[in-house]
Design a protein that fits this description.
The chain is built from ten helices and eight strands. 42% of the residues are buried. The chain is an alpha/beta fold.
Length: 276
């Protein structure tokens, strides 16, 4: 049995992506598609919506910011599926709204932890159980490119230069630290925390791609922008439907066996965009 996992998928783009994958794989009878969510009740309700459409999706609780929750899920997958994970889409994320009362330091800490640090942690925890010809997709945003261009020159140089995951973590820890002390602008940062978190995840995608290039499992990993989508995250102001937003991650998640590109790329509307 093959396995597909989409994090943060009880609503929005993630939910639409689970539905598309379930529709694709249902006729084969050879896939288990997992919808995951922090809240079990919301996750089960989302699954029930798809069950009523005849789509046999499965649910598992997952809070990517909770190490124990991640451990339970990875342990479950390891014990239940000897063949490993065939498809992982890191969709879970957070965006503080403009009207949020949260202080900037909290915004920076939580946003970087959720969208970058914990997402990277979960990815690394899943790496050992990724199957041959598996696909790994990181949901990013073109706001990452905007955030990159707004950085001070020294910070831009760091992101455009080779680095390790440890160095990238340290760089983002530095941003969070300076956000807390209030001197982030003096150190070349700015206040686009969401864009910065997705910039870090885009860079991590490139680094992971380099790490996996000689892996005999032939894993393809890519980052993508779904576009401006009508979801809770955008206060339903987006111009794309969730189904349209799910198109590019669906394309990357279902890349045929045997192809080698795109890999370690940033993809939007099914096209590679090179900017980092």
């Amino acid at each position: 049995m093959k396995v597909a996992v989409v994090t943060g998928s009880n609503k929005g783009i993630g939910f639409a992506l689970v539905e598309k994958l379930a529709e694709l794989y249902k006729p084969t009878g050879g896939w288990h598609v997992f919808l995951t969510a922090r809240d079990e009740q919301r996750g089960h309700r989302a699954c029930e919506q798809l069950h009523r459409k005849g789509l046999p999706v499965k649910f598992h609780q997952l809070d990517i910011c909770d190490g124990l929750s991640r451990k339970r899920f990875v342990g479950f997958l390891t014990s239940e599926y000897a063949g490993g994970i065939n498809l992982l889409v890191n969709n879970a994320g957070i965006l503080y709204k403009d009207q949020s009362s949260a202080k900037f330091a909290e915004n920076a800490r939580v946003t970087i932890d959720t969208n970058f640090t914990s997402t990277l942690d979960f990815t690394l925890e899943c790496l050992p159980i990724l199957a041959d010809d598996s696909r790994l997709v990181n949901m990013c945003s073109f706001l990452a490119r905007v955030a990159y261009r707004k950085l001070g020159e020294k910070q831009r140089e760091k992101f455009s230069s080779p680095m390790t995951l440890e160095e990238l973590r340290a760089l983002m820890d530095g941003f969070v630290r300076h956000a807390d002390t209030g001197d982030y602008e003096q150190h070349g940062w700015h206040n686009m925390t969401y864009g910065l978190s997705k910039l870090a995840l885009t860079k991590a995608t490139s680094i992971l791609g380099d790490m996996l290039k000689d892996d005999p499992r032939r894993i393809l990993i890519n980052a993508c922008c779904p576009g401006y989508v009508n979801t809770d995250m955008t206060d339903h102001k987006g111009t794309k439907t969730p189904e349209q937003g799910a198109d590019t991650p669906f394309f990357l998640a279902t890349l045929p066996v045997g192809i080698t590109e795109p890999n370690s790329q940033f993809v939007h509307d099914r096209k590679i965009h090179r900017w980092l």
